[in-house]
Structures are given as C-alpha cells and as structure tokens.
What we know:
Domain Aldehyde dehydrogenase: 27-470
Family: Belongs to the aldehyde dehydrogenase family.
Shape: globular
GO molecular function, one term: oxidoreductase activity, acting on the aldehyde or oxo group of donors, NAD or NADP as acceptor
Protein name: Aldehyde dehydrogenase family protein
Largest sheet: 7 strands, mixed
Organism: Humibacter ginsenosidimutans
Amino acid sequence: MSDSAPxxxxxxxxxxxxxxxxxxxxxxxxxxxxxxxxxxxxxxxDLDGAIARAKAAQPAWxxxxxxxxxxxxxxxxxxxxxxxxTLARILSREQGKPLNGxxxxxxxGACSGWLRSAATTVLEPEVLVDDGETHAELHYRALGVxxxxxxxxxxxxxxxxxxxxxxxMGNTVVVKPSEYTxxxxxxxxxxxxxxxPADVLIxxxxxxxxxxxxASHPDIDKVMFTGSTATGRKIIESSAGNIARxxxxxxxxxxxxxxxxxxxxxxxxxxFWGAFINTGQxxxxxxxxxxxxxxxxxxxxxxxxxxxxxxxxxxxxxxNVLGPLQNKQQFDIVxxxxxxxxxxxxxxxTGGAPATDLGExxxxxxLVADATDGMAIVxxxxxxxxxxxxxxxDVDDAVANANRLEAGLGGSVWGDPxxxxxxxxxxxxxxxxxxxxxxxxxxxxxxxxxxxxYGLEFGVAGLKSVAATQVISG
Length: 474
C-alpha cells in the first residue's frame, strides 16, 4: 500500500515547471487518468528564443574547461539524488511505471549514474603520427548547441543520455521532451539547473512543429533523437538544410534465440524481464522470441508462471512492478496486434484482453504462443506487454528470421556461451546479449544498425559523437 496523494515536494516541484492555472495542456496520470498537471505549450518563437540563449551561453560554458564542467555536472547529479524520490513519483504518475522493480526509482538512479559517468569519462587527444618528422594529434572540441528530442517511455534516463555527454564536451543543450511526458523532464531539468549556469540546459515543451523546427534550426549543430523510425526519417530530412550531425536511436524489434539444451526454468526470469521491463515499452526490449522445438513448451510454461505471479497496477503502490500503457495510441496498437494474432491461429497463453478492472490503459502480460513469422505481432514492433513466441527446429532458420526485418537495435542468444557467441556473430543488430537481454552500461557503446538508426551513445564513443574533430599537425 502507498499514499497516492501528491507530496508537498511533488506539488512544489511541479509548480516550478507547469503552466499557470487555466493555461497549458492538461497531462493525465497514466494509471488513473486524473489530471496530473498542465504542460506549458511553447511555440516555435519560444524555441527560437531558447536556442538563441543557449548559443549565447555556449562559449563561456566551453571556456570553463573539462574539469570545471565535470565539477558542475557532478553537483547536478547530487541535486538529482537529493530529489530522486520526488522525481520518481512524478515520473510514475506521468509515465505509468511503478516506483519499484526496474522502473521509476531505477530510472532516477540511472540518471545520476549516467550523468556521473559522462562527467568523469576521460577523452584525451589522440596522437596519430609521431615519426620524428610529423606530429599529428586528433582533438575533440565542442560542436555548439545540441538539440535533444526525447521519447515517453524512459523520458528522464534517455534525456540524460543526450544531455550528459553534450554538456561534458562543452555544448549547451535544448531539450524537447515528448508531448506525453513533458512534466517529469522539465522537473528534472529544473533540478539540474540548480547547479548549472543559466541557459546551458533549457527545456522547451511544445508540439511536433516545435520538434521539427529544432531539427532544422540553423543554430542547432547536433540533433539527438530517440523514437520511431518514421520520425527519425523526418529528422534526417529536416537536418539537411543545416547539416546538423545526428545520433538516432530508432525503433527496434529485437529477436531472442533460445538454443537447444537451454534450461527453461533457469533462463525464464531473465527472458521475462528482457521482454517486459517497463511493461514492454522499451526500444531494446525482447519483442520476438524464437525457441527450439525441443524445449518450446517448457519455455512457454515457465514464462507463464512468472507472468501470472508478477503484480500489475497503479505505480504508486509499493507492491506493483508492472504498470499501464502510457497512452491510448500505444494501448490500441497492442490490442490490435493481439487480436490479429488470435484471429490468425496463435495461442494466447496468458492475458489477451484489456485489464479494465485495473484502469483504462492496463493490458496484462500476454504470451502469444505458436506465433509465426509474417504475423503482424511478429513483424511489427508491439512496444507493450505482448510477446510472440515462435517455434523453430533449425538454428540457421532462426537466425535468418531474426535478421529478416529492417530493425537492428538489439538481439540475444540463450544457451551454451560458446555456441551462443558463434550464433550472436551472425545477428544483424547493434548489440547482441548472451544469456540476457537489454542490459546497458554507461561505458559500453550502444546504437543500432539498419533502420534502427546510427551513431553511438555512452562512454568514450558517446563523447566523440557530440564533439567536433580537429587535427593539429606540424
């Protein structure tokens, strides 16, 4: 049980960022659909002003040098830690994810951890040639102003993935949060700005027109975007005019392959959370599971037991670890794909219908057995609590089907580690996990291939992606 009433701290922080009474756009609580707050509705003119301020602040921020910037970023991380519970509760209400499990409190911990990692990662100049006649070094400088466009599924953590490296390298950042989850992002930025200089980090809450302008603005030097492949294509087109550099983390439809000889009960818990972390609303979640015929039924049964034992409900309850779909559009996609699978002969093992007793946008964990390639639930990214499980008898066929789609964000192989690594080398995705799925580390680069985008985030590679290169030779 938990007190669902907003705390004094929540109210005070929301009041810092939301629109005045009677203005703005109402943002609902994802679980109860009651009004959480009022998001500012800013315009293209507001965005232009924010970019102008960020551009004016950038030279002084870069001139502070790496050591001072790192110091201020660590103070911003301290501020996040001091406000972590308040931010987690706002995030839980707005996004829907529960406080516990790999959810809201986990996300706030990741925000602090990734920000600290970006602040302290060392990026030294690289000596290219030093042969007694020529000495050439590769240096990394600030680009200028970075435009960060974020999603609604992990709105705070992904914003930090964009903000942290950009600030570390001496850029200023203008953040455009998702229209579905603006309040939590604006609240986080407000907290960080307690430690950062004015106009180094600015949030702008607006509609798609504002996002399009951010991607095409002549004073934006880099665009970082996490979201759908369709929107990513539009950003590529918009950025042609200003030749902004891009890092795009786009849609995923990650395949997992369970090899023969695997122990179904031993891997079931990790398979479950690989698929259903954040109630399945994760770009690099496991979304297609290929299981060898010899252990197929046992894997399905093991996953069903976990699904039936994992509590779902309002995220502010300390008992729940699964929440609602964040928005009606995504809810409808999941419902459509499950109904299509049922109509085409798939077997619904658990779930399979909206959980209206829990609330408007709750959909239970749905295991879709006897799914086949070509079904919509396999070929389309469901981005929710429904997992198609496909039977195979030949590993080569499973690899071919895993690679069949245009998505290439992540993948996983489960079984004997040596054999799994041999299979992993054949998977067309930016990351392949062995006997796990979806785990990220702030020093391990992450990015997609094919239509899942391009560019790397995290660690040294992530710092380089938000920097301009300069060769000094002589």
